[in-house]
Amino acid sequence: MKKISIIFLILLITSKVQAVNINSMSPLYWSTVFSPENEIKEHADLTFEKPIVYNNDSRWINQIFLPNDKLGPFPVVVIMPDCGSVGPHNLDFMQKAFERGYAAIVFDHHRGYRINCGNSRDKPVKWLRMTKDAYDLAAFLVTLPNIDKNRIYSTGGSEGGMIGGFLSSPGIKKFTAPNAPRYRANASLYGCAVFPPGSSAPNTTRDHMYIFNDMDKPLLWLMGEADNECIIKEELQIIKDFQQIKLPIEYHLYKDVTHCWDCKSKNGLRQNMYRLGSQVTVTYIFDQNVTNDSTKRVLDFFDKYK
Q1: How far apart, in whole angstroms, are the C-alpha atoms of residue 44 and residue 47?
Q2: The predicted structure's pLDDT at residue 24
Q3: Which of 5, 215, 237, 275: CA 20 to 30 A from 245?
Q4: Per-residue pLDDT at 3
Q5: Other C-beta atoms within 10 Å of 251: how many?
Q6: How far apart are CA 302 and CA 183, in angstroms?
Q7: Residue 167: what pLDDT?
Q8: pLDDT value at position 114?
Q9: What are the two backbone dihedrals, phi and then psi, of residue 195, each rounded to the nearest 5 degrees?
Q10: Which pairs from 145-149 meet CB under 8 Å and 24+ separation?
Q11: What is the predicted pLDDT for the residue at 208?
């Protein structure tokens, strides 16, 4: 009876919203429109090194760091970059995680590619390969005695946060890494939850979704009201609809804040993109107060899910 009631509620909600709706936000999209096997096989599996204590290390990318020399086990945060590559803001987040007693890794899954932006089919390292890499890292982390295998978390900005949407879906896991351990919770900073047709190029005819209607792991979705790289109105409606059917997603919308609010090195950057069939100018504005608040919100969220 409960299952029937949920299905009825889904149908009721989706009758009110536009083409992108919670029925269409299925993980099956990524197994039917794309080829999981081919995407994953484009690159070999990664290997990982045992963790060390962080001490102002110059090589801080793809290294698992412990916050101190105590035995642990420590909870761990996997920090993933936006599509434009790792930046100093990722290191800043890692250092804040250390202050909370978390181990951490800035995980650059771009495999040597400086830029991993573009349409889903054009990315040098595609979505399902990046998701598999994150699961492979989790499988390694649970073998380490100084890591708490039940408290592995992910966060990231833009692309990195959107991977958290994939990690929150058991359906995505089933055809990417069925035997891997799950992430306890995931958080996104200025990730884009959905791209309706015409959003990534003027001739695209399909929805692209990055959060899914089978979500079963806690997901925090932080958004900027002035972020026109994402389609904020549509994703806000989807998130509220997800909450109505009791999916474990929380959100916060920052007023007058743009995409990449923590990207100090990109402050003032302007670029043109297609959104909903039209060209728009996207501007990144760094905001230290929002950066501080979003970092705290993410770590508080992880603290809540122990």
Answers
A1: 9
A2: 83
A3: 275
A4: 44
A5: 17
A6: 11
A7: 98
A8: 87
A9: -120, 105
A10: 145/72, 145/73, 146/51, 146/66, 146/71, 146/72, 146/73, 146/74, 146/103, 147/51, 147/64, 147/72, 147/73, 147/74, 147/76, 147/103, 148/72, 148/73, 148/74, 148/75, 148/76, 149/73, 149/181
A11: 82
Q: Tokens 């603290």 correspond to what residue?
A: 303
* HSE value, Cβ hemisphere, 13 Å, CA-based, for 156: 31
Instruction: At 199, list the tokens.
Output: 């959003």
Length of the chain measured in residues: 306
* pLDDT averaged per 10 residues in sequence order, the chain, 306 residues: 43 44 88 90 95 95 96 97 93 98 96 84 91 98 98 97 98 97 98 76 67 98 96 93 97 98 94 81 96 98 97
Domains and CATH numbers, the chain: 24-304 (3.40.50.1820)
